[in-house]
Amino acid sequence: MESICINKPNDLKTNLQKKNIATDYLNLGRQGTDxxxxxxxLLSLTKETRFKNLVWFFYEGNDYEKKLKxxxxxxxxxxxxxxxxxxxxxxxxxxxxxVNSNFNISLxxxxxVFLAEILxxxxxxxxxxxxxxxxxxxxxxxxxxxxxxxxxxxxxxxDRYIYYIPSWxxxxxxxxxxxxYYKSNPQxxxxxxxxxxxxxxxxxxxxxxxxxxxxxxxxxxxxEVFHYGLNTHFNEKGYQYLxxxxxxxxx
Length: 251
Description:
Order of helices and strands: HHEHHHEHHEHH
Number of helices: 9
CATH architecture: 3-Layer(aba) Sandwich
Number of strands: 3
CATH topology: Rossmann fold
Largest sheet: 3 strands, parallel
CATH class: Alpha Beta
Distance between the termini: 19 Å
Shape: globular
């Protein structure tokens, strides 16, 4: 969890450090990585490092897209240059914009917003009968966890955790919790199956599974943890909440 888009002192590591100044935290999170790259970073960058515990985050939004199969971990050499921030974008303060203050929020528009928030839009009625495919290659992810487990065993690492971070797609359905169909939503069924698989693999390989879904779904407005409530990275509040939940469940 790289805390992308957030600087110190509001990033995840600093929030954790504030809670326990006697503990040092090494954050190996890197944006745009799935579990194969995350495993590679762990094996490469901590080979000569001593540490007591490990927290491996799994984001249900996209951490399952790449596969471990056919990758030679024993001969993997990570390119440290690729871990450096590189940006060719030019910063400018000359931004012109215009706001139309005469927009009429009609009753029809309010109804459409209501349906979008409660039912994920009118398309919900069609999607309700769609069977979504499995998101995770179970055996592939299990192999990655097994490799990590053996590596941690050899280094005598104590507690090892897998923290499951809910996606924006899940949190955006929070208002439907008031109604019976939240658990019947095909996309929630798909995500719950993914979560159950991650939990099972974690616990079968001596990792402690931490379910972040329960924590974030109990927030009055879970979307407040994202920039502008949109499908982006966590904002300052999101990393604060994440640090709070993680720290409370790893002590």
